[in-house]
Specification:
Number of domains: 1
Structural class: alpha/beta
Cofactor: Zn(2+)
Protein name: Cobalamin-independent methionine synthase II family protein
Pfam families: Meth_synt_2 (PF01717)
Keywords: Metal-binding, Zinc
Largest sheet: 7 strands, parallel
Strand content: 5-15%
Number of strands: 12
Distance between the termini: 18 Å
Number of helices: 10
Shape: globular
CATH architecture: Alpha-Beta Barrel
Organism: Haloechinothrix salitolerans
Strand order of the largest sheet: 3-6-8-9-10-11-12
CATH class: Alpha Beta
Length: 368
């Protein structure tokens, strides 16, 4: 599989969120910058140290592509996941009623009241911190555009697609700046895709990555907030509407998962698609074959909802299942989703299990 400028056999990575060092969260100096240098030297040092610790865990485990870990200054990685972006764009105010979005029913929902434009860099500070800490290929994660648009109380644009195109333009500017500063891969986290895609999501994604000189991946999520699987909140069955986490009747609709994103994703100008296999098993791999998916596939083979660390042999077995559907030259391996809900020592051990399991299968392939 192509990673940056090299071909790597079964490259390893983690999806995104990783437990922050305990000393970082909640501290007054744990502040992510609004602009390139709009923060003090103490906060900058703390951010670089926190990112460096997360990079070290990945390198120590033997991971090939180093992820940012989503260090957002101690903010909740899910409940307020939109803060990071709307505070760096014009046209938003940080208030509005909650929106019952699939998977994350407590998601903060801001209001769009004007033209959306990029005002401050989204992830440049993280990229610079991670680049100081590693010489390996680097992957930076962005919340998906459909997620941002769906979770916005839109009071300015005529339709959701128009809002999404404005966000895509802002992302495009940001991605080009990241590419110019040495980022190898950008990953979009689209966790509402499994609940159905319309006629504009792929168009908007392609606009965001148009002319960007780095690889683009999409991670689509089967659910991970507080360790829960995917669900669609049913406001009629909940006392507090969208604020209630996964309080649903047994008849509530479940996500279609991989079947919902095909064949749409075939038209995305991305380099790789990623979703979980470790917890759910190989059934979701069938659409890759049924719809003739020809791009690279990064398979999640580490169950992030279990505190039990897989053995290297268990991981190797999951990888062999993936190779029955996708040839080895187009396969990468990752965690199912972010490791944020696990203790850091467990998260680190799971990364090591991933690397060790991949090493077993690499030897088998080279021997063959």
């Amino acid at each position: 599989m192509r990673v940056g400028s090299e071909d790597v056999l079964l490259p390893t990575t983690m999806v995104g969120n990783y437990p922050n060092p305990r000393w970082y969260d909640g501290q007054p100096f744990a502040v992510y910058p609004n602009g390139e240098f709009i923060y003090d030297a103490i906060s900058r040092e703390a951010l670089e140290d926190a990112v460096g610790a997360i990079v070290n865990d990945q390198e120590h485990a033997g991971i090939d592509v180093i992820s940012d870990g989503k260090v957002y200054g101690g903010d909740s990685p899910y409940g307020t996941i939109l803060y990071h972006y709307v505070q760096r764009m014009t046209g938003y105010k940080l208030s509005g009623p909650p929106i019952g979005l699939p998977i994350y029913s407590t998601l903060f929902a801001p209001t769009c009241t004007g033209e959306v434009r990029r005002e401050h860099p989204f992830h440049l500070a993280t990229l610079r911190a991670i680049r100081k800490a590693t010489k390996k290929p680097v992957k930076i994660s962005y919340t998906g555009i459909q997620v941002l648009a769906a979770a916005t109380n839109n009071q300015y644009y005529k339709e959701t697609k128009e809002l999404a195109l404005a966000i895509a333009k802002a992302f495009n500017e940001d991605l080009k700046e990241l590419a110019d500063n040495g980022c190898d891969i950008v990953q979009f986290d689209e966790f509402v895709w499994p609940y159905g895609m319309g006629d504009w999501e792929i168009e908007v994604l392609n606009k965001a990555i148009e002319g960007v000189n780095m690889q683009s991946w999409v991670h689509t999520c089967w659910g991970n907030y507080s360790g829960t699987p995917g669900y669609f909140p049913d406001d009629e069955e909940t006392e507090f509407g969208a604020w209630v986490l996964d309080k649903r009747p047994s008849s509530a609709p479940a996500p279609e998962r991989a079947n919902a994103i095909f064949p749409h994703v075939n038209d995305a100008n991305i380099d790789a698609l990623n979703y979980e296999v470790g917890r759910m098993g190989p059934d979701d791999l069938k659409p890759l074959v049924d719809h003739g998916f020809q791009k690279d596939f990064v398979a999640g083979v580490i169950d992030v909802k279990s505190t039990i660390t897989e053995t290297a042999d268990e991981v190797a077995d999951r990888i062999r299942q993936v190779l029955e559907y996708v040839p080895a030259e187009r396969v990468g391996l990752s965690t199912d989703c972010g490791l944020i809900n696990l203790p850091r020592m467990v998260a680190a051990s799971k990364l090591r299990a991933l690397a060790d399991g991949v090493a077993i299968v690499r030897e088998e392939l080279r021997g063959a």
